[in-house]
Amino acid sequence: MKTLMKLKWGNRTYAQQKAMWGVIYVLPWLIGFVLFFFVPLLASLRYSMSKIQANADGIAIQFTGLTNYIQALTVNTSFNRALIESITDVLVNVPLIVIFSLFLAVILNQKFRGRAVARSIFFLPVILASGVIMSLESTSLIEAVNQSNSGGSMFGTLELEGLMLNAGVSEWVVTYLSGAVDRIYQIVSQSGVQILIFLAGIQTISPQLYEASKMEGATGYEAFWKITFPMVSPLIFVNAIYTIIDSFANNAMTELIRDTGFVKFDFGLSSAMAWVYFAAIAIILVVVSIIFSKRVFYQD
Q1: Residue 270: which residues within 8 A CB-CB, separation 6 or more?
Q2: Mean pLDDT of residues grouped by 10 in the chain (300 residues)?
Q3: Distance CA 266, CA 277 (A)
Q4: Fewer C-beta neighbours within 10 Å, C or N terminus of the chain?
């Protein structure tokens, strides 16, 4: 029996073996999704097309078609605003987080004293974000610190904008960069995982490639664009997808959906909002995947 299994496995091509191991790797997640998420997902889709009322006999579900979707998109005044704000924040923050993470990963990969401490500091927000600090961000202390920082940096941001505009930089680029300065706390706090992924990818690049480039007279700048950037381009793709999902996971839109369902107890409307939000996320992910898949370099 073992010999037969070895023959069957040995007859497979390398690509087939990789595909098989890939299926085995995602199988636990697939089983968990089917057992714990697929049924609630279908129930949510059903609720989004129904009117749900609680009575003495339990929950009464009445099919209403697309009424909840129409109400979310045309009647509810907060939904469209929160959806546009969430999408805008993602379009602004994702490039900044990915670029910042790659830049820091390259720096943290260099040899210097205190490198381990520096790596821990930049990963610390990821650990703290799931604990008490996450709840403190909405309190007066953290809010006051953020407000004082934004107020104190206003004049510096205006001076920076003036310098760049006088240097001939495009107004759109200046606005984007000044917005990045105002979002620096959010960018740093959401970059820990991405830095770790980039750092792991950079360390897998063969040092012989850099040695050969130095022998050819390449500068550090040229080595980055010709070696480091192409080699970590698959990880740029991964981090972009991860950052998009992470940015959509906790924002004003998710709070609106949660409040509609569990504060106002309008589960039908809440489910419809969630599915519209899910469709918007799916469209963005598909567009990003198409753009990146044509530019990612995979080493054979």
Answers
A1: 257, 258, 260, 261, 262
A2: 51 81 90 88 89 76 88 86 86 86 86 75 65 49 48 54 67 66 73 86 87 86 86 89 84 86 86 91 90 75
A3: 17
A4: C
